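assembly run, all chains below
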Amino acid sequence: MSLAEDLAERVREGEIRLHELEDHTDADAAATARRLLVADESGADLEATGAYAFDAAVAEPNVENMVGAVQIPLGVAGPVTISGGALSGDRYLPLATTEGALIASVNRGCGVLDAAGGANARVTKTGMTRAPVFKTDGIVESEALAAWTRDNADRLREAAESTTSHGEVTDVTPYVVGNNVYLRFRYDTKDAMGMNMATIATGEACELIEAETDASLVALSGNLCTDKKPAAINAIEGRGRSVTADVTIPAEIVEDRLHTTPGAVAEINTRKNLVGSAKAGSLGFNAHVANVVAAMFLATGQDEAQVVEGANAITTAEVTDGGDLYVSVSIASLEVGTVGGGTKLPTQAEGLEILGVRGGGEPAGSNADALAEAITVGALAGELSLLAALGSRHLSSAHADLGR
Ligand SMILES: CC(C)(COP(=O)([O-])OP(=O)([O-])OC[C@H]1O[C@@H](n2cnc3c(N)ncnc32)[C@H](O)[C@@H]1OP(=O)([O-])[O-])[C@@H](O)C(=O)NCCC(=O)NCCSC(=O)C[C@@](C)(O)CC(=O)[O-]
Ligand SMILES: NC(=O)C1=CN([C@@H]2O[C@H](COP(=O)(O)OP(=O)(O)OC[C@H]3O[C@@H](n4cnc5c(N)ncnc54)[C@H](OP(=O)(O)O)[C@@H]3O)[C@@H](O)[C@H]2O)C=CC1
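ok done. output:
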């Protein structure tokens, strides 16, 4: 009997708990034992799941009860020329996806951006948020807590920043609803996406509030943050990075390479992305920004649940006075990091290396800004290509040819 079989047997007999296997062997053998158990009980063949290309120990901070890894095909679009505030030059964009035709589309968009001289990109606002909820005795105490927060901003900042050498509190805004007070802390988290950093720092500030006021903390996250849920506050106020990419494309390039006209792209954008989205009550006034955000998040080790916020994007398109096509994509809440979370995993770190943004930037925060700009330029390429495919009526044929 192999070590893994022996461990699997001990789990079956109740001697060891499934999540304690790493206490008895190394991380790879523990994953093997778990695979044996799951394969046995489900009848699934987990050979492919077990054929992963890194030491399981590397993933210990990222996953519990590990049995293996899911492999998602990785492709590249580009290279595309980016003139950003933090990222300048030609870059291949790494995209992990199972949607055929997506990378072809982004690739076509990148080619068009390049033919137009490249895309501009800028981060216009930065700040990861955490909003604990406090319970008070009523509006008199709620107002007093809001006032205390404003009067003690420096002490709150000092408490929060005592937990991190990188994070900086940039704002604490109180929101009052009856006997509930939500304090929306905003942090500059530099190159980290910052959710752990902001949560730990806010926890420290909450201890000060409870020690000094009558309010009691109900939950460290009161959903006004808002993390991993669709929310207007993120679309309006921003969360993570607010980023815009834009380009002006000469009319002949639109006609030659996208088989449509600037006027048709602008009209589709208005009727589909603006009016259609408004009628649907959507927060996303775009065509498929989530496609590029999700594929680049997977490729670079971002928290995939935050694609929800990454879809808070508005695409604009208009015909210029000279008859050319101006297109922009503004993502309000793109939550990205180049340190921490899944960014250290080997293939994800390579994804960051393709963009030249692995690890901490110099100055701190510049690598995460650069990643945000690259993703937004990818989204711009994708919007352009899909809007054009709708204009030339190529969407269904493209997916019939490439996506099945
Ligand atoms: C498929 C194309 C690009 C063909 O477009 P085309 O212009 O007919 O193709 P082409 O053969 O002339 O090639 C043009 C360029 O496309 C790229 N390209 C072309 N083929 C490939 C390939 N195999 N691999 C990589 N790149 C490819 C490549 O850049 C190429 O330039 P080249 O390098 O040859 O000079 C076009 O029809 C297209 O972009 N269609 C739109 C597809 C799309 O955007 N799908 C996105 C997903 S749809 C979805 O998920 C969301 C949705 C639709 O439900 C949201 C909504 O409601 O709107
Ligand atoms: N806790 C929660 O509620 C939630 C957690 N998550 C998870 O949180 C993780 C991401 O949290 P995050 O805080 O980004 O990452 P980590 O928890 O991995 O922490 C990253 C740390 O890296 C250090 N660091 C080193 N160099 C830099 C640099 N250049 N810029 C910024 N920080 C640097 C900082 O340490 P120091 O602070 O000491 O300076 C920072 O706190 C993901 O795994 C995500 O899935 C997601 C949603 C909610």
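Residues 99, 101-105, 107-108, 111, 287-288, 291, 385-386, 389, 394-395, 398, 402 surround 3-hydroxy-3-methylglutaryl-coenzyme A (ligand 1) (CB under 6 Å).

The beta strands are 74-84, 88-96, 119-130, 133-135, 168-177, 180-188, 216-219, 240-249, 313-319, 325-334.

not gonna interpret more than that til we talk
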